[in-house]
Specification:
With 332 residues, the chain is an all-alpha fold. 61% of the residues lie in helices and 0% in strands. The protein has a domain of 54 residues. The chain contains 16 helices and no strands.
Length: 332
C-alpha cells in the first residue's frame, strides 16, 4: 500500500460521510498518473503554493492602498488567514482539510492590483466583464505554468469559482471557504481600519459587541463556533449569528469599504488601471508575448484583462510611470 492509498484509507475511516474524499474526485481535465505520496487534493495545494500568481499576492492590496507600516494586510496575508479559519472549521466538522486548504489558497489568485478598485475598473471597461473569482479560475486553468494552467481537480476549481457570491460550491469544503473568506476579511479589515484611524471599537455595532465580544479573536471564535454547531449536511449558522454576520458586513461596507478617508487614493488607482487598459488595447503589440498569443486566441480585451489583473500594485505603478511619466533629460 502506498502512502497515498493509506491516506485515502484514513479519510474513509475518519472523515464525515458528507466530506469530499480524495479518491472520489471528478479528476482533472488532463488525466495524470496518481502520486504515490500525495492525494489529488494535496497535489493541488502544492501546485498553488508554488505558482507565480501565489507569490504575487504579497504585493497586492487588500483594503488600504500603499499603507505606511508593515502590519497592514496584503492579499497574501488575507489568503493565509482565510486558510487558517477554513481549516479550523473543516477539521472540526471532519470535512476534507486538504481540499479546503487548496481552495482557500487559490481563491484570490486572479485578484487585481489595488484590490476591488482595480476589479471595478476592469469590470467596467472590459466587454467580457470581470470578476476576480472567475479570473482566479482562469489563472489556474489557462494562465499559469506558461499558459498550460495548473490542471487542478474539478472540486478545487469549483470551490475557487464559487467562493465569493452567486452559486454555492458543490462541496461542503468549498462552502466553508466562502464563509471563511468573509470571516477573515471582516475581522482583519476592522483591525486595519482601527490602525488607520478610520474606526474605533465603539463604532462597531453594539449588537455585534454584545453577542460576539470586542476583540478580533472573540468575533472569529464566535462565527466559527456558530458554523461548527449548525453544519453537517450543509454549512450554515443559526439565525442569530447569521444576522450578526450580515450586520457586521453591512456596517463595514458603509464605514470602511466606501469610506472616503479609507479610499482617498482609490480614484488615482482606478485612473492608473483605466489608462493602462486603454493604452494596451490600443497598442497590443506592446504586450508581452504570452498575452499577444491570447489576443490571437481570444481578443485584445481578454488579453489586456489577463495582463493587468496579474500585476502587483508595485509593478502596475512602475509600468504606468514608465509609459506616462516624463523622464528627466539626460545629455548622454
Amino acid at each position: 500500500m502506498t502512502i497515498r492509498e493509506r491516506t485515502q484509507e484514513i479519510e474513509r475511516e475518519i472523515l464525515s460521510p458528507h466530506a469530499a474524499l480524495a479518491q472520489n474526485t471528478k479528476g482533472r481535465e488532463i488525466p495524470r498518473p496518481l502520486c504515490d505520496m500525495r492525494t489529488e487534493y494535496q497535489r493541488d495545494r502544492d501546485k498553488i503554493i508554488h505558482c507565480r500568481s501565489f507569490r504575487r499576492l504579497m504585493n497586492k492590496t487588500q483594503v488600504f492602498l500603499s499603507p505606511e507600516g508593515d502590519h497592514y494586510r496584503t492579499r497574501l496575508t488575507h489568503t493565509l488567514e482565510v486558510c487558517q479559519i477554513a481549516r479550523t472549521i473543516a477539521r472540526a466538522l471532519r470535512y476534507n482539510e486538504d481540499l479546503t486548504e487548496a481552495i482557500a489558497l487559490g481563491h484570490d489568485l486572479g485578484h487585481t492590483p489595488f484590490g476591488h478598485a482595480g476589479e471595478a475598473v476592469l469590470s467596467e471597461v472590459c466587454p467580457h466583464g470581470f470578476h476576480h473569482s472567475e479570473q482566479s479560475v482562469r489563472v489556474v486553468e489557462k494562465l499559469e505554468n506558461n499558459s498550460r494552467g495548473l490542471n487542478l481537480t474539478w472540486e478545487v476549481r469549483d470551490g475557487i469559482r464559487c467562493h465569493s457570491n452567486g452559486d454555492w460550491a458543490a462541496t461542503l469544503e468549498g462552502r466553508v471557504v466562502r464563509y471563511a473568506d468573509k470571516i477573515a476579511y471582516m475581522n482583519h479589515d476592522i483591525e486595519d481600519a482601527k490602525r488607520a484611524g478610520v474606526l474605533t471599537d465603539e463604532d462597531i455595532p453594539w449588537n455585534v459587541r454584545y453577542h460576539l465580544g470586542r476583540t478580533k479573536s472573540e468575533r472569529i471564535t464566535g462565527f466559527i463556533e456558530a458554523l461548527v454547531g449548525n453544519s453537517g449536511k450543509d454549512v450554515k449558522m443559526d439565525a442569530l449569528y447569521q444576522g450578526l454576520f450580515d450586520e457586521l458586513r453591512a456596517f463595514l461596507f458603509e464605514a470602511v469599504y466606501t469610506n472616503p478617508r479609507a479610499k482617498r487614493e482609490e480614484g488615482r488607482a482606478k485612473g492608473v488601471v483605466r489608462q493602462l487598459y486603454a493604452y494596451f488595447t490600443a497598442n497590443s503589440s506592446r504586450l508581452p508575448d504570452e498575452y499577444i498569443k491570447i489576443t490571437e486566441e481570444s481578443d485584445v480585451h481578454r488579453a489586456v484583462c489577463d495582463y493587468i489583473s496579474g500585476m502587483s500594485d508595485r509593478y502596475c505603478v512602475s509600468l504606468y510611470e514608465a509609459l506616462f511619466v516624463p523622464k528627466r533629460w539626460s545629455d548622454g
